[in-house]
Amino acid sequence: MAKGKFWQDGLKFECRQCGNCCTFPGGSVYASEREFRRIADYFEISFDEFLDRFTEEMDGYVSLISVPEGPCVFYKDGCSIYDMRPTQCRTFPFWDHVLKGQHRWDDEAAQCHGMNYGKLWRPNEIREQLKQGEQALMKARSKSE
Ligand code: SF4
Ligand code: SF4
After folding, report:
1. Of the four, 4, 62, 93, 94, which is 20 to 30 A from 100 by CA?
2. Are 117 and 13 in contact (CB under 8 A)?
């Protein structure tokens, strides 16, 4: 039960493709090593080449590059790796820190026009999104290993 949480009756969200979440300056896109390897395979390049060309270190973790100080490296009028996009992107805005309280949700909704709009996500669906976001992220030191 999600009793007591501000989202106990569910939350509305439906992406309106505005691109704000992919173009936020200085944004980070973390993923597990497995997810990064899947994107490298998609481009048919080696994992090392993928890391060199498309990722950078951010706060001790490997992140997709934001170019420069702007859109995600894979943003080209929309996500150019949509089917391969990391869990972080798939589960937005149902992130642990966004769901901590109504004010956090409202702050995020000021940037994302898909929040409080469209499809109603039930608590069990929101919990499933949270669970997916619990995966281990690739640490930066692994990049040169
Ligand atoms: S900011 Fe929200 S509505 Fe805009 S692309 Fe991202 S998820 Fe979709
Ligand atoms: S990987 Fe795709 S969905 Fe994720 S931030 Fe980059 S462009 Fe957006």
Report:
1. 62
2. yes
